[in-house]
From TrEMBL:
BP GO annotations: L-methionine salvage from methylthioadenosine
Protein name: Enolase-phosphatase E1
Organism: Eleusine coracana subsp. coracana
InterPro entries xref list: Enolase-ppase_E1, HAD-like_sf, HAD_sf
Alphabetized Pfam families for the sequence: Hydrolase (PF00702)
Keyword tRNA-binding: no
One Gene Ontology MF term: magnesium ion binding
Keyword NADP applies: no
PANTHER family in the record: ENOLASE-PHOSPHATASE E1
Length: 252
């Protein structure tokens, strides 16, 4: 068992490979967004929300083209017509998903596509069986729990609001995404510390499956445990972090 120091007042959790199987993201969520991107854009084209999504994607694609990113396709102006714009957007979105890019423009659109899937019950959020009882226990003990994922906050709320174990959002105090910064930068964890209302970063326990994220969080002063789950990438030798295979190992 891994002792969770009572001076630590909140837990911040990654999703993919930590609360949820990587396969849920790679085999369910990503394909759903890819396969439904055109349908979603066609059905919502011209709405304020989708106009915002397209503006973000246009800006990202322009940057990608300037930097020579593989798979980037110029997006024509609106005057070229709806079908031409959507064709280019879908080509870019498919390339971004294939490259598993952690960028806000993609994540925001994916969240809006997934919303349709969750609302229509085509998708259910998958979490490991040890996650709900741990969240419930921490909540009862006054430990604040947060999610930090490269997926948009809306997508996070959808996943935890529609799990195979029911709505788990009642156990969560908030959601962070890449608008606070990327997950491999210490500054991002500093920003989270500033937002969660504890006196010291060491009062935050961060759970992740990614060594680079663990290193960044540790550099910001957080306590860190690395999650070992089926399908996760192997860790480097002598990584120096405590590991868990279940949230039940984190004892309060």
């Amino acid at each position: 068992m891994t002792r969770f120091d009572r001076s630590q007042q909140c837990v911040v959790m990654d999703i993919e490979g930590t609360t949820s199987p990587i396969s849920f993201v790679t085999d369910v969520l990503f394909p759903y967004a890819r396969d439904n991107a055109r349908k979603h854009l066609d059905a919502t084209y011209g709405t304020d929300e989708t106009n915002g999504d397209i503006a973000l994607l246009r800006a990202q694609v322009e940057q990608d083209l300037a930097e020579g990113v593989a798979g980037a396709v110029p997006v024509p102006p609106n005057e070229a017509g709806k079908d031409s714009v959507i064709d280019a957007l879908v080509a870019n979105v498919e390339a971004m998903i294939k490259a598993d890019r952690k960028i806000t423009s993609l994540k925001q659109l994916q969240g809006h596509i997934w919303r349709t899937g969750f609302e229509g019950q085509e998708i259910k959020g998958v979490v490991f069986e040890d996650v709900p009882p741990a969240l419930e226990k921490w909540h009862a003990s006054g430990i604040k729990a947060y999610i930090y994922s490269s997926g948009s906050r809306e997508a996070q709320r959808l996943i935890f609001g529609n799990t195979t174990y029911g709505d788990l959002r009642k156990y969560l105090c908030g959601f962070f995404d890449t608008t606070v910064g990327t997950k491999r930068e210490p500054r991002s964890y500093y920003e989270i510390w500033q937002s969660v209302g504890v006196d010291r970063p060491s009062q935050i326990l961060f759970l992740t499956d990614v060594h680079q994220e663990a290193t960044a969080a540790k550099a910001a002063g957080l306590e860190v445990l690395i999650s070992i789950r089926p399908g996760n990438a192997p860790l480097p030798e002598n990584h120096g972090f405590q590991t868990i295979t279940s949230f039940a190992e984190v004892m309060i």
